Amino acid sequence: KAGVTQTPRYLIKTRGQQVTLSCSPISGHRSVSWYQQTPGQGLQFLFEYFSETQRNKGNFPGRFSGRQFSNSRSEMNVSTLELGDSALYLCASSLGGSRYGYTFGSGTRLTVV
Amino acid sequence: TQLLEQSPQFLSIQEGENLTVYCNSSSVFSSLQWYRQEPGEGPVLLVTVVTGGEVKKLKRLTFQFGDARKDSSLHITAAQPGDTGLYLCAGAGRNFGNEKLTFGTGTRLTIIP
Predict the structure, then answer these.
(1) pLDDT at res. A56
(2) What distance in Å separates the CA atoms of residue A113 and residue B61, rounded to the nearest whole number?
(3) Among candidate residues B12, B21, B16, B28, the one with its CA nearest the CA of residue B84
(4) Which residues of B touch A43 (CB under 8 A)?
(5) Rounded mean pLDDT of chain B?
(6) For an interface test with B, which of A33, A37, A43 has the most B Cβ atoms less than 10 Å from its Cβ?
(7) pLDDT band at residue B100, thresholds of 50, 70 and 90?
(8) A69-106 burial by CB neighbour count: b if 16+ within 10 A, else e?
(9) How many Cα atoms within 13 Å fall on the side-chain side of residue A43?
(10) How many CB atoms lie within 10 A of CB B60?
(11) CB contact under 8 A, A106 and B40
(12) Of A30, A71, A97, B96, which has the most beta carbons under 10 Å away?
């Protein structure tokens, strides 16, 4: 079966711009989570959606937002980009949460210049 | 804030040797997962442990969840070059439904042929 698909794989943006990242989960998975990975901070939780509802949120500023559609696909938006937003953004899907484990996509490498 | 400390941070050993990676926290987790990540890719789930004291084996890998559900270990027997990668532990919140995964600091393992 198809895995978690994230698009685009690579992205270069300028400070102040906004960006939208997309994630298509494994068919049948209703839970989608987003993480930011940087060399200094490691993997940090952004938010989790389940059946179109945000179920949990990490400690990121309001510039980071997301949503989930009825087909479970999810998007993440970052407005007013800062240099420090450069990172690998990972999406993960699950049948119903942590007890089932998460399948991660390959990520979107965002570079802010 | 839940924190997961992994040790060692870096480990380089010869092929055929055994090793153990530790994941420690002062917080209780409802479940704990181990992932392996290759450069430029997302983490891949190796195992999920749920019950305190639980031991799971995956070929040459043995995972243990502490009795108090605060810590875990990963033991690899007869390490092979294919085991090289970044190993991450991740704990799920104490209450079911709190699906924020807290990732450990990571152990970068290199197996020398």
Answers:
(1) 86
(2) 42
(3) B12
(4) 43, 88, 90, 103
(5) 92
(6) A43
(7) confident
(8) eeebbbbbebeebeeebbbbbbbbbbeebbeebbbbbb
(9) 31
(10) 13
(11) yes
(12) A97
Q: How far is B96 from chain A, CA to nearest CA, in Å?
A: 9
For residue B59, is it left (φ>0), alpha (ψ between -120 and 50) or beta? left
> Which of the four pLDDT bands, split at 50, 70 and 90, describes residue B2?
low
Q: In this predicted structure, what is the pLDDT of residue B3?
A: 79
If you average pLDDT over residues A6-16, what whole number do you get?
97
Question: What average pLDDT is seen over chain A?
Answer: 94
Average pLDDT over residues B42-48: 95
B31–A98 C-beta distance less than 8 A: yes
CB B68 within 8 A of CB B6: no
C-alpha to C-alpha distance for B63 and B46, rounded to whole angstroms: 10
Mutate one of A4, A45, A98 to test the B interface: name it (highest B CB count within 10 A).
A98
Please give the structure tokens belonging to residue A31: 């839970």
